[in-house]
Amino acid sequence: MPLLIDLAGQALAPGDILRLSRNYDLGPGSGPIDLLVYDPRSDDCGLGIVTVSGRKAGLILHHFPIASRGADGGLAVDWLIDNWDDWFVFTYAKDTRIPVREARVLHPDARTMPEET
Question: 97: which DSSP letter?
Answer without folding.
Answer: B
